[in-house]
Write a structure and sequence with these properties.
By secondary structure, this protein is of the alpha+beta class. The chain is about 30% helix and about 25% strand. It has two domains: about 140 residues, OB fold (Dihydrolipoamide Acetyltransferase, E2P) (Beta Barrel); about 300 residues, BirA Bifunctional Protein, domain 2, CATH 3.30.930. A hairpin with a 2-residue loop joins strand 1 and strand 2.
């Protein structure tokens, strides 16, 4: 049985007692005419009035009881709705002796009630609602956690987000902020003449990023399908088709470990801009951040944990290779030798395979010596071509890609590049990815011949970018874990053994 402890059983008995009184513990068609916040805002002036009450005004307010104290023939309570807390006062004389007696026995903290009454200010100076009538809207069967200790178990908070939100109003504020962030992003791109589109979430080929996919099966077609790891290849097909600026706020799925910045299901915005380049993307991205800070009324110097991020200056730009030397302090004279890089990594207790390509070794150096030092917004540009299978080669140096990644607070936030629109080059890149996959890289891209065929019809010069919304919300909401900005994050099953390295 779900509700089996003694306290739940007692509340079920009270619920039945309410039914016997003709009171439906789960009513319907119950409406309110104001919120707790609006009530408090509208009648703040009463604190300055001599009478400190206005019985000519009547409002219906609904909320969950968070505090309840009976004092003989009267009681004070605090009820909470989405907007905030409101103190209410009710007495035996106002609501009737018989009902008041039953309320004392049958209604308690956690229940949702509706009250009708007028505004007044208590002797202690608190604006409150004087109740003329009180009705139960929903009986709570499961008691809330004891208020003094609250809901502090982090794992329980993530598993039971509904309870987390009941007990911690700041959690609701985080997700209101997230909604505003997404809305602001959408309006920003619409105002810049981008078209919002939707592309498939089940793909016949896992592509668009280096990641291990989730695999499902379509019974009717008798074929495997892959949950989307990125919408990139479909969005670029649309640019081939004639849409010159498109974006999608999308859910992606990657079969990877979980930590402070990774969840297997996550949200991004990807956008593609024909007849623009990756420098244009970097300028647009900084403009987006400026807009977000302005619309959300956030400071240009933003606190994130124990560090301060400075958004007031133009974002720094530095090449991938230069970042290794200037920021990571990697000796410049080893960067052209795979053997010397491997030795340097091993000297620093980092084990890697000796057969990795130079670009992959650069990536290891960057991950270990550079990334966590990038606090203020920094564009790392001109990536090794080996780790950029979909990006355009630089014409002057074919070993690098015309690509950038944006790092803030030591974390990657966005990735963008000039799109590869040469179908023959793209085909060769896919072949190399297949070689890498056959050699054991289960995150390498698959061959997508239809996409190559689409390029054959002609993709105009285009730049594209993906920006992680979850990580962006973390920054702007000052949250250190991705689980704090995803309403229902992925969790390991209870009583299930999971590898230590997969959940950190």
């Amino acid at each position: 049985m779900v509700f089996e402890n003694q306290y739940e059983q007692q509340r079920i008995q009270k619920s039945n007692a309410l039914r016997d009184l003709g009171k439906n513990p789960y009513g319907h068609n119950i409406k309110k005419d104001t919120t707790t916040q609006k009530f408090l805002e509208n009648y703040t002036y009463l604190k300055d009035e001599e009478l400190k009450r206005d019985e000519t005004k009547s409002h219906t307010v609904a909320g969950r009881i968070k505090f309840l104290r009976h004092m003989g023939k009267a009681a004070f309570a605090k009820i909470e709705d989405e907007s905030g807390l409101l103190q209410i006062y009710f007495s035996r004389d106002e609501i009737g002796a018989d009902w008041f007696k039953e309320i004392k026995k049958l209604i308690e903290v956690g229940d949702i009630i509706t009250v009708v009454g007028f505004p007044f200010v208590t002797k202690t100076g608190e604006l409150s609602l004087h109740v003329k009538s009180l009705e139960l809207a929903t009986k709570s069967i499961t008691p809330l956690p004891e208020k003094f200790h609250g809901l502090t178990d982090i794992e329980l908070r993530y598993r039971k987000r509904y309870l987390d939100m009941i007990m911690n109003s700041d959690v609701r504020e985080t997700f209101k902020l997230r909604s505003k962030i997404v809305s602001t992003i959408r309006h920003f791109f619409e105002e810049n003449n981008f078209l919002e589109v939707e592309t498939p979430m089940m793909h016949p080929i896992a592509g668009g990023a280096n990641a291990k996919p989730f695999v499902t099966y379509h019974n009717s077609l008798g074929v495997e399908r892959f949950l989307r790891i990125a919408p990139e290849l479909y969005l670029k097909r649309l640019v081939v088709g004639g849409f010159e600026s498109v974006f999608e706020i999308n859910r992606n799925f990657r079969n990877e470990g979980m930590d402070l910045t990774h969840n297997p299901e996550f949200t991004m915005i990807e956008f593609y801009w024909a007849y623009h380049n990756y420098h244009d993307l970097m300028n647009l991205t900084q403009e987006l951040f400026n807009t977000l800070l302005e619309k959300l009324k956030l400071p240009k110097k933003l606190q994130f944990g124990d560090i301060t991020i400075d958004f007031s200056k133009p974002f720094r730009k530095i090449s991938f290779r230069d970042s290794l030397v200037q920021i990571g302090k990697v000796p410049n004279d080893i960067l052209d030798s795979t053997d010397e890089i491997v030795s340097y990594l091993k000297e620093n207790d980092i084990d890697v395979e000796r057969n990795l390509l130079l670009g992959k070794l650069y990536e290891e150096l960057f991950d270990n010596f550079v990334e966590d030092k990038l606090i203020d917004p920094t564009y790392i540009i001109d990536y090794p071509i080996e780790i950029s299978p979909l990006a355009r080669r630089n014409e002057e140096n074919p070993n690098i890609a015309e690509r950038f990644e944006l790092f803030i607070a030591g974390r990657e936030v966005a990735n963008g590049f000039n799109e590869l629109n040469d179908p023959l080059d793209q085909y060769e890149r896919f072949l190399k990815q297949i070689e890498a996959k056959n050699a054991g890289d289960d995150e390498a891209c698959e061959m997508d011949e239809d996409y190559v065929r689409a390029l054959g019809y002609g993709l105009p010069p285009t730049a594209g970018e993906g920006l992680g919304i979850d990580r962006l919300v973390m920054l702007l909401a000052n949250q250190q874990s991705i689980r704090d900005v995803i309403l229902f994050p992925a969790m390991k099953p209870l009583n299930c053994e999971v590898k230590e390295e997969d959940i950190k």
